[in-house]
Amino acid sequence: MSDTNQPRQITVSEMSPHVHSFGPGENKVTKISAWLIKWIEKSLESGSIKPFDFLPSKGDLAFHIGVSKGTIQNVFRYVEDCGMVESKQRIGTYIKPKYKSIKSEKLTSKRELACEAIKKFMIENNYHTGDCLVSTRKLSRITGISNTTIRMAIGSLVSQNILKKVNNVFIAGRMDFSIEDVKVQTLVEKTAENLKTHILMNYNSGDRLPANFELAKIFNVSVKTIHDSIKLLAKQGILYTRRGQYGTVVTNNSNENSLYHYEKIELKIRHYITENCNIGSRLPSILTFAEQYEVSAKTVKKALDNLSEEGYITFTRGRYGGTFVTDIPQGVNEAYKWLALSPEYATNIEKLEN
Fold first, then answer.
1. Is 1.20.1290.10 the CATH number for 110-172?
2. If you average pLDDT over each of 34-48, 82-96, 214-228, 237-251, which comes out highest?
3. 187-250 adopts what CATH topology?
4. pTM of the model
5. Cis bond leading into 56, ω under 30°?
6. What is the average per-residue pLDDT within 140-158?
7. Could you tell me which residue, 166 or 106, shows the higher pLDDT?
8. Domain 260-332 part of CATH 1.10.600.10
9. 12-105 adopts what CATH topology?
10. At 324, is the secondary structure helix, strand, or coil?
11. Antiparallel, parallel or unpaired: β 169-172 and 163-166
12. Same fold, 110-172 and 260-332
């Protein structure tokens, strides 16, 4: 007797009706993703599928719909970023028990940014209805956006009737559109920002981050999105990636602008202790530091709490209480022994202190 609570493999035959035709210039990934999301939601509601059931393989689903395996891979990635499914290497893609809605998780995509860039180009170049659009290669060169993303954006604009495809040429379908403010973030950029905050609040320099698939669970995005976010932070010098068992190591961005306010004050107080104090010395009051560094008392308090957790100071109450030094930092470099991994940052540390 089979256990109905055990996860099962969903077959492609269960997923009909499916997307089987695409209009001229219509984006396949967008259309299939919308269909798959709707199918999962309805199937969960009806009880025909349940959390942890596995979707068909990319190859089977691609054959079923009549598209390439790469297209389905992009579809799965999109749906995973929406929080509805999760992919495990060599295991498959399964339905997540709980997921955030697209509205709460989906941010501006590269395709959407490209759409606004193309619309802006059309307006600035006085396009009229019926005018031919320049080639995707030229648009890519003008906007600095990849050919692939430009093609996806054109497909989206066709679905909005802003563009039309006539004899394999795209023409302006209508010009009564407005340009949206695109000063927003892609999902990768937003995830990188959230990951950076997570690192600053939970890790020290030299610590190793969890595996990418574990971070993907924390931020409810795909492993690919985490991978791209880590690459972004590595370029900023916040992370250092190594192959094999070493994984991703937290370094530090020595650019002061990247630090939170209290972290800057923590560095200054650390330097003050190194230069002016001995073990047992009493530090100036929080208000004194706040006036000296022109910050709020709350910011100073948070910096001192961090130094206390690291064992450099202690707080005592009462008439003779205060903040006392319990250990002397060996200068700023003592806190950044990981610089052996990233020697190019060593020269910037003293700039931060000065």
1. no
2. 34-48
3. Arc Repressor Mutant, subunit A (1.10.10)
4. 0.39
5. no
6. 85
7. 166
8. no
9. Arc Repressor Mutant, subunit A (1.10.10)
10. strand
11. antiparallel
12. yes
Across 5-14, 110-119, 255-264, 293-302, least confident range: 255-264
Distance set, CA 299 to CA 285, 286, 317 (Å): 13, 9, 20
φ/ψ (deg, to 5) at 220 = 55, 45
Sequence spans of domains, the chain: 12-105, 110-172, 187-250, 260-332
Half-sphere exposure of 250 (CA within 13 A, CB side): 18
Ramachandran angles phi, psi of 52, nearest 5°: 80, 0
Instruction: Render pLDDT for 276-322 as a digit per residue (tens, 0 to 9).
Output: 888 888 999 999 998 888 888 888 998 898 888 778 898 888 777 88
CA-only gyration radius of the chain, Å: 27
Structure tokens at 198: 């997570």
- pLDDT at position 134 is 93
What does pLDDT average to over the chain? Answer: 77
What percent of the chain has a predicted confidence (pLDDT) above 70?
A: 77
Instruction: Tally the residues of the chain.
Output: 354
CA 203 to chain centre: 18
Give dist(CA 310, CA 326) in Å, integer: 10
Of the candidates 24, 28, 27, 26, the residue with the CA atom closest to the CA atom of residue 167: 24
* Residue 209 · residue 239 · CB < 8 Å: yes
Asked if 53 and 94 count as a contact pair (C-beta separation under 8 A), the reply is yes
Neighbour-count burial of 121, counting CB atoms closer than 10 A to its CB (0-12 exposed, 13-18 middle, 19+ buried): middle
Residue 131's pLDDT band (cuts 50, 70, 90) = very high
Which pair of structure tokens corresponds to residue 27?
Answer: 């984006």
